[in-house]
Automatic annotation (TrEMBL):
Source species: Granulibacter bethesdensis
Pfam families referenced in this protein's UniProt entry, alphabetically: Polyketide_cyc2
Top-level taxon of origin: Bacteria
Extent of the signal sequence: none
PANTHER family, per database record: BLL4707 PROTEIN, SRPBCC FAMILY PROTEIN
Record field: transmembrane: none
Protein name from the UniProt record: Uncharacterized protein
InterPro entries: Polyketide_cyclase/dehydratase, START-like_dom_sf
């Protein structure tokens, strides 16, 4: 039989355990003060294994998301370039509107292909910087709207570090009888798995595509002025 000196602490401990978390919420609303020790005991009493598991789920999800973000695969990149030149859209289109003629872009050494400006036509571009080829298909062609779209059907990271490259080249009227040439691209980096080498990561791929497009637009600016 416990002594009287021990009975009181035992009784208090039982009181703490039976004082539920719901009572704590009620006490808080009524403005009653709860000693920190009692709050801890009440929380431990309320935190059953099932509730602990429920609280752990968001933490696990957050940790998983963080780990995925740190080792994610490639994400779609975009490059948008434009230039305004001192020529009408028709004059500019006469230079850039032939799918098989890329002589206006100094970044391209040569072009081969067939099918003219018919959708699904193919062209193979040999790029000057690398001497390597890439092959594109013509996905849309509209001479009236002065635009065409391409898709990279045979990527070659040694030539241009990009995969699934889609582009749109267009000419639109600008103030003063000028034209705005827009060249937009969307693509994945040159290395499609995790942990890409520096020359095939997002930044390197984006720069390579942008440099290729800027070279062509700068040449148009030099040709027509603006």
């Amino acid at each position: 039989m416990p002594s009287l000196a021990l009975q009181k602490p035992i009784k208090q401990n039982l009181e703490f355990k039976t004082f539920s978390f719901r009572h704590a919420c009620s006490a808080e609303k009524s403005g009653q003060y709860l000693p920190p020790q009692r709050e801890i005991v009440m929380l431990l009493h309320w935190l059953t294994p099932a509730r602990a598991a429920m609280l752990a789920v968001p933490v696990l999800v957050s940790s998983f998301a963080a780990s995925q973000a740190s080792a994610h695969g490639p994400t779609r990149q975009k490059v948008e370039e434009s230039v305004t030149v001192n020529a009408t859209p028709d004059k500019v289109w006469a230079v850039i509107g032939n799918f098989h003629d890329m002589s206006w872009n100094p970044a391209v050494a040569s072009v081969t292909g067939d099918g003219g400006n018919k959708v699904t036509s193919l062209r193979t571009l040999t790029l000057k910087a690398s001497g390597k080829p890439i092959t594109e298909s013509l996905d849309k062609y509209d001479a009236t709207e002065h635009l065409y779209k391409t898709f990279l059907t045979k990527p070659n990271p040694d030539a241009l570090p990009a995969n699934d490259l889609s582009t749109e080249l267009s000419v639109s009227p600008a103030a003063g009888g000028k034209s705005t040439v827009e060249w937009n691209a969307a693509f994945y980096r040159g290395y499609m798995n995790n942990d890409p080498p520096p020359n095939l990561n997002d930044e390197a791929s984006k720069k390579a595509v942008a440099d290729y497009m800027k070279a062509g637009l700068a040449a148009l600016k030099a040709k027509f002025g603006g």
